[in-house]
């Protein structure tokens, strides 16, 4: 750690990260290694949540919690590392729906979450209990306790629930529009954390289906603008015109009418941005958005050390631009 980045980590008493699944979880893991637990709050997208086999699945919440607990399957990007699929095999034997792969150990999470939801416990309280049991020490908040479902309006196949489009249809139907069904209140703690944050980090998550659901909740944009100056530092999920994982590179031309680039992502967030972290080589396109401060560095996170290095650099950059 350079003296500068160590100082930056200490400069911030309150850091909030908004996160989707794998890309978000990786940077959040890095932030959790650089910041003391009381300084980090992660607000996680629940637009991907859905019911499957009668269970409430919260894929991004689980990806973030498993990653923070060092239990995640790193290459796959979802589920647990030490996993088996005997239940899924049996479901297949019955000739039933096996398009969404729930692992045997992962099922424990969904069973307990569903049981407690049926008893009236809010998703945020359930998440806090499960995360604590797995040894997670920072605060992980699902964005809302009530449903806000990401729906994908496609060119040729009508409107599909997110997981149907993403997993069952492999993101093949071309996207025309993304909408969110439901506008619940933000979960307890979300608006206060955002209003009080010294810096809000947007990790390399998909803006349309991972971050926008969070921004769509009542009061979230106002909480982000509370201090009267931009406090968001975003890490670009587009590297060299491609998405590291997922369908974002095809979604940007379809939804923004522009080639996939870090600049297109920066434009999407607009005036909320205080700075943008991009892969070295991608900074050229951002010149047109000057005076937006840009840090060009290595953003691809292949290891936990990469995640921690990017977290440190992002915080050091944020300390400079928010000074
Ligand atoms: N993604 C897939 O592509 N195929 C799957 O079978 C699958 C199962 C799965 C089970 C639990 C879980 O928490 C996530 C799972 N995911 C799967 C990932 C998930 O659908 C998406 O990656 C996120 O919703 C997007 O962030």
Give the gist of this structure:
With 323 residues, the protein is α/β, with parallel strands linked by helices.
Describe the structure.
The structure is a single chain. The protein has 323 residues and is of the alpha/beta class. Helices cover 40% and strands 18% of the residues. It has helices spanning 3-11, 22-34, 59-68, 86-93, 104-118, 123-133, 162-168, 190-196, 207-215, 220-225, 248-256, 262-269, 304-321, and strands spanning 15-19, 40-44, 50-52, 55-57, 139-142, 149-154, 159-161, 175-181, 199-202, 232-235, 238-239, 242-243, 273-279, 294-297. The protein has a seven-stranded parallel sheet with strand order 5-2-1-9-10-13-14, sandwiched between helices. Helix 2 packs parallel to helix 3, helix 2 crosses helix 13 and helix 5 runs antiparallel to helix 6. The longest helix is centred in the C-terminal third of the chain and has 18 residues, at 304-321. The two termini are 21 Å apart. The mean pLDDT is 95.
